[in-house]
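S.,

As promised, the iron/sulfur cluster run. Input:
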Amino acid sequence: MPEADLSASSPISIYIHIPFCQMRCTYCDFNTYTGLEQLFRPYTEALTQDIALWSKPDRLTAHTIYFGGGTPTVISVSLLDHILTICEQTFSLTDALEVTSEANPGTLTASYLRSLRVLGVNRLSLGIQSLVEAELRLLGRLHTADEAAKAVAEARTAGFENINLDLIYGLPGQSLASWQQSLSQALLLEPEHLSLYCLTLEEGTPLATDVAQGRQPEPDPDLAADMYECAVEQLERAGYAHYEISNWARGPAPPGASPSLACRHNLTYWRNQPYLGFGAGAHSCLGGHRWWNVLQPGEYIARLREHRHGGRDHPPAITASEEISPRLEMGETMMLGLRLVQEGVSVGEFARRFGRTPYEVYAGEMEELRELGLLEWDEARVRLTPSGWLLANEAFQRFL
Ligand code: SF4
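Predicted complex:
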């Protein structure tokens, strides 16, 4: 990475990637691996070494920590504890620190959840994906619908007051009725937050191969759009604020703001603010630069070992980096901010950051999108219209 000012004026977010899972789901193309239990400890050592390299007298302030994966909860609580301790020693952590861990039902016990809560993890993101057994089998999930409900109950008992549930729609063979069944049952679990994702068939995954070879029906994009629209209505009726294209949360939501239980970590990304990512394949964005770490956990460990023995510059696990030009930063701020249904892109914030309003930079693009019915704005915010939520990618392209 070229010389760069890697200080941050506003609090940063920290992402920690745990690239291990017990089994590979049929649709997954994430950077995660099975059967690497022997790497849990050396990987944690490498992670903590990598994090500690950011230790400096004028510490960076962090306001969120997010354990993602993979399945972070496959590693022991003591290893997660070690990582959090090094974060505390390296960064100034804000009082209202949000600490999220992703987790999968079927990998959790009541005592593990209690220990996680005691560590300071205060937000749990459970990948339940569906509450219909046949769909869980199709997705290759390890857990049953009952185990998903049990995981939520045990998380409540452990003291978690902020729980997200991930659900996937647009599955091969999924009907609107079965989607509504999953969603209704998820609502009975009273999560504070819901993330609903449309299935993407990633080339090379077993599910994509099954569809390509005719063993599973091709998902119908029009039906998936209907599922999304049903969810928007159903969740509004249930009192959730729709704050990001795919995300809903409880909590007060003043006009033009995201609700108090929105995922603050992900808001960092959508507001195009700085973050540091640690671990195999993790991305960072700070000081006008963006960089990516090597993908393989074994190589990540080797890079950190090499650094310990005197080789490699800091940060040692980088595989690629780029400078973010002001033009690119503006475009990304528009693209990411427009994902936020209520907040959108704040005209005032944009002008403070770039010296010009969005309209001064993108008048042609904005007018065109308004004519298409995808964009609206006033003196405070630029936002997608509800029609724009389903055609967001078309709108985003205009800004990049
Ligand atoms: S649990 Fe998540 S990260 Fe792991 S294989 Fe399944 S979808 Fe991928």
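The CA atoms of residues 65 and 265 lie 7 Å apart. The first helix runs from residue 40 to 52.

- D.
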